[in-house]
Amino acid sequence: MALAVHRGRFTVDDRAAQLYPLLPVEVPAGTDALTVRLDFDRTDGVLDLGCFGPTGFRGWSGGARETFTVAAGWATPGYLPGPLEPGTWHVCLGLHRVPADGLPYEVVVDAVPATPPEPPVAPPVPARPPQRALPAEPGLRWLAGDLHSHTVHSDGALTVDELACRAAAAGLDFLAVTDHNTVSHHPELPAAARRAGVALLAGQEVTRDTGHANAFGDIGWIDFRAPADDWLAETERRGGLLSVNHPLASDYAWRQPMTRRPRFAEVWHWTWLDRRWGGPLAWWLAWDPALVPLGGSDFHSPAQGRPLGGPTTWVQCGDDGDGGAHVLAGIAAGRVAISAGRDAPVLLRVGDELVAVDADGTYLVDPDGARRVVLGDRRSFPARPGPHRLETPDNAVVALTA
């Protein structure tokens, strides 16, 4: 049964006036499930898709889907299952790209039977490579991870289980699952983490066309439509950590105005294709030299050819915590290093020393730009405050530490 049909043409004036228009749908009591279908010409523009119920957020799939279903016991990935409250619901569209002559669209909302799909088959758990032995402070250890990844709950190709198993096969100890503008993946993380033997950190990539930020922690949904200052304030109020993502990455570089800057940023992202290029380091120093740098692969699909853990973020942690709480505590304390990969050269801050591991023949570069040659597979240097890095003789960065 059709509950609503919305047709029209979005114009450039519409996009200028309201980036996220809401289309109302009256849902009667006793409705089992809703299916929403969006139709437009993808060769002409880009419309994002999401949904709000009478009591708030019910899901987001951005440009990854043109249809979704929400029911009491299940929902399309990206959306939250639960009872369908009677009242006014809204289909939320994002006017991401609208051509000069406008973009015709149609949205159809149907009441449908609540027939769940077949659950996905869990993949086999792979063998894990042995952990890397690295020097650490007493009572702490360095864990290898990746702080940026996606699943079928947004625009990724893998289920949460498949992603967790891939992280285990890569020898990672933790992985942040940061689907775009949704938290529908969070309930699946604990079971997948136990099965694969990898700490899965709850996260969400708060996504606008003028910048993305990762909100880490099981803190509930952050409203991407609000100003970025609100992202930071609300994330911190709920006990999470907010990190600016890929600040120099093509058309989704960071252009969000903020009156107070986050302490964390994804300085090393896969788009740093030539690490002789000093842009990310220059941005770091201009933004805040005291920033805690993070790394993320932004993994979406094996077909991209980019592995999880490229780059690898190392966090010096205490005892294991539920849901990766120990990892978030280490990040909050600034006990972080970044390397090109799990087995690549790494530069670690251990007490009053900087320790370069498997970095023979590189340069240790201090905050003033002075260089010292690293000789041997493990070399210690007196530590100074501030950013340090390892570089090859041709000035390619291979490791960072705050």
Question: Structurally, how many domains make up the residues?
Answer: 2
Query: Count the helices. How many?
Result: 6
Do you know the CATH architecture of the largest domain?
Alpha-Beta Barrel
CATH C-level category of the largest domain: Alpha Beta
CATH topology-level fold name of the largest domain:
TIM Barrel
Which assembly state applies to the chains in this document? single chain
Number of strands: 24
Enumerate the spans where pLDDT stays under 50 for 5 or more consecutive residues.
Answer: none
Order of helices and strands: EHEEEEEEEEHEHEEHEEHEEHEEEEEEEE
Report the helical percentage. 10-25%
Cα(first) to Cα(last) distance is: 58 Å
Rg, Å, rounded: 23 Å
- Overall morphology: globular
| Widest sheet, order of strands | 15-14-13-12-11-10-9-16-17-24-23-20-21
Q: What report would you give on this structure?
A:
By secondary structure, the chain is mainly beta. The protein has two domains: 2-112, Jelly Rolls; 141-401, Metal-dependent hydrolases (TIM Barrel, Alpha-Beta Barrel). 13% of the residues lie in helices and 36% in strands. The strands form four sheets. A 13-stranded mixed β-sheet has the order 15-14-13-12-11-10-9-16-17-24-23-20-21, sandwiched between helices. A hairpin with a 2-residue loop joins strand 4 and strand 5 (56-62). Helix 2 (160-169) packs parallel to helix 3. The chain is globular.
